Amino acid sequence: MNARRITPVILSGGAGTRLWPLSREHYPKQLLALSGPRSMLEETLQRFTDATRFPPPLIITNEALRFPVAEQLLHSGMTGGSIVLEPVARNTAPAVAAAALMAVAADPEAMILVVASDHVIGDIPGFLGRVQAALPAAQAGRLITFSIIPTRPETGYGYIHHGAPLAGHPELFDVAAFVEKPDVERAQRFVAAGDYFWNSGMFLFSAQTFLDELALHAPAVLEAAGRSLAERQTDPQFVRLGAEAFAASPKISVDYAVMEHTDRAATIPCDIGWADVGSWGELWAIADKDADGNVVIGDGMAERARNCYIRSDHKLVAVLGIDDLVVISTDDAVLVMPRQRSQDTRLVVDRLRDAKRSELTSHSRVLRPWGSYQSIQTGERF
Question: What's the rounded Cα separation, in Å, for the pair 62 and 21?
Fold first, then answer.
């Protein structure tokens, strides 16, 4: 088949709470520089700068993040690109449905590559090579998901059970099953078996094929996305989907809506230095460490400590005689927890939400299109 350009669909919403206190609801992790000098969104955009292979991307985000996303798109140097605003959060399937409808309207044979804006990929050429290897099967009507060769028995990821090799496409496999996040014992069995890989949540498919399968397996999602797109409001920067229509969609992921039901699912295994940065423990795992296994970012020091993740964005943080801890300090909050419990940050987040604490939603310095403002002191009646 003829090679053709692939439209990147970059999902950049999310609540921004798994990496609290550095990440907040109004300024979540994809807008932060967590794994390099650029933000995670900018790192994602940089993967698609080759205009011969990729047209300008579709970025799906929400109203609260529209200006920082637009600023980072501009800062990335990428011209073009559309920022599509979800009026409410409805998980990934409605967002991808709206993007697929937009892509098909521009090109009935459009191919789309769905990625998250908060993933780390260490081997960019390897990733792009896997995309090209999967393209012929996607053009032939398969819905491709990218599975990651596991490096450890991870309990924070879902898994894909590989089936038989895909006829005519020796690097791809049928999907035997999607498996929810396992406990430690099951994760160990999966890794030992050798045919269970991490589910990256990245997809490649013909936009029309995805819409056809959505109509078959989740028609309410397609109907809501279509109506929200018909009712959209467009200005030079943003496409605002119709709020009432979009809110009528079921809240459901691409996996649950389509991939677990379709007979067109296939997967391509990848060894590309991938990580879904969903916890402080994950950031520790992928970061460069000192001789004692510590990661120290910002103004911090570790004395007689081992395997700790220490990050300060404000004042000096010094730790002594501790092992396997996460210590995060911002100018208005401090988080300390065992590194093995870094998936449990949500417990603190839930307490903050119940108490209606502003530290959950915003940093003390709040960015606006015209600049920023910073809260110095908050107290009773002021």
Answer: 21
- pTM score above 0.85: yes
Sequence-separated (6 or more) residues with CB below 8 Å from residue 107: none
**Per residue in 319-331, is it b (16+ CB within 10 Å) or e — as a string?**
beebebbbbbbbe
Q: In 10 A of CB 193, how many CB atoms? A: 10
CA distance 330 to 311: 9
* Contact between 139 and 208 (Cβ < 8 Å): no
Distance CA 124, CA 308 (A): 28
Q: What ranges do the domains of the chain cover?
A: 6-276, 280-372
Residue type, 323: D
Neighbours of 92 (CB within 10 A): 22
In this structure, CATH architecture of domain 6-276: Alpha-Beta Complex (3.90)
Reduce the DSSP state of residue 94 to 3 states and report it.
Answer: helix
Q: What is the pLDDT of residues 274-305, one digit of tens each?
A: 998 889 998 999 899 999 999 999 999 999 99
